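> forwarded from #structure-qc
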């Protein structure tokens, strides 16, 4: 049993490290203007995506947000195609047309992400309705930030999913920020109490760095969805290390302190298991180097590509 746990932990740490190093490479490349898209980095929040996606199958359908690099990788999307997409090249997962904020890999169940806050939540509810009508044993997952809870479509989606007992998992990545505005200045209600008001089972994970707990909780909730148990709602508290959009730090902006980040760094799995990270660094770097080389070699789209994929 100990060996099984150890191998599982290694897999989770490897994916977490891969996602962080990918995004750190994006930071390095960003000043060169090779990255042809604004980027919302997941640095600090990677364990949430890795843990949630571990028990998902390719048939389980995931809808996420513009901060989607981590979910694309954790759900099984190909790294070279991700880098080429960020470069705006034809070899990208969407031919260079989607960029960072609209990633999709339907072949592994990663549906289109969106730059519009809360807009993929009703898409997930629609997919869950279709799954129920077809009688599929399929789980549908929608990821959103705490800011999305202030959008009307979030409320409508919870109500509809609960009313029709749909197999959808609502996941709130709660980093307590909407750009620069803290949660306490935006919401006059309690997020969890509000979700419970729709008669949806709610779960809260306080430590968004706990890979194993996130994965085990996700497995339990997904199994409930597949067995017809109706919608589930999960909030995971987490913390982004970088600015809302872009490659930089923003602790001099006055809305948060570096001391907040230090608290999260203390439980960051890549620091906690530094010995495993050291063993994996060379393999991770090699994988990222190959992806960047693929992106560099991929041709840029031309005028002939302008109207393809348009209906």
């Amino acid at each position: 049993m100990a060996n099984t746990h150890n191998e599982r932990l290694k897999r989770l740490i490897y994916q977490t490290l891969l996602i962080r190093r990918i995004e750190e490479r994006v930071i390095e490349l960003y000043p060169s203007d090779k990255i042809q898209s604004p980027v919302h980095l997941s640095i600090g929040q990677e364990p949430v995506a890795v843990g949630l996606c571990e028990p998902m199958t390719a048939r389980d359908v995931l809808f996420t947000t513009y901060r989607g690099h981590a979910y694309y990788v954790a759900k099984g999307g190909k790294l070279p195609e991700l880098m080429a997409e960020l470069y705006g090249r034809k070899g990208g997962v969407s031919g260079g047309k989607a960029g960072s904020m609209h990633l999709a890999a339907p072949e592994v169940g990663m549906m289109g992400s969106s730059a519009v806050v809360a807009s993929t939540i009703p898409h997930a509810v629609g997919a869950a309705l279709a799954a129920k009508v077809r009688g599929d044993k399929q789980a549908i997952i929608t990821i959103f930030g705490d800011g999305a809870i202030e959008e009307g479509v979030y409320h409508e989606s919870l109500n509809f999913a609960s009313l029709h007992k749909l197999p959808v998992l609502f996941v709130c990545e709660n980093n307590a920020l909407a750009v620069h505005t803290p949660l306490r200045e935006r919401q006059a209600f309690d997020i969890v109490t509000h979700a419970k008001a729709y008669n949806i089972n709610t779960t809260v994970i306080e430590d968004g760095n706990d890979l194993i707990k996130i994965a085990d909780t996700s497995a339990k909730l997904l199994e409930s969805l597949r067995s017809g148990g109706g919608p589930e709602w999960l909030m995971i508290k987490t913390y982004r290390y970088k600015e809302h959009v872009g490659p930089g730090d923003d602790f001099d902006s006055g809305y948060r302190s570096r001391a907040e980040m230090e608290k999260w760094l203390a439980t960051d799995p890549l620091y906690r298991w530094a010995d495993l990270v050291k063993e994996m660094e060379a393999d991770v770097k090699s994988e990222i180097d190959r992806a960047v080389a693929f992106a560099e070699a991929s041709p840029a789209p031309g005028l002939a590509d302008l109207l393809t994929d348009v209906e």
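QC bot note: DSSP finds eleven helices and seven strands in the chain. The domain at 2-240+256-299 is CATH 3.40.50.970 (Rossmann fold).
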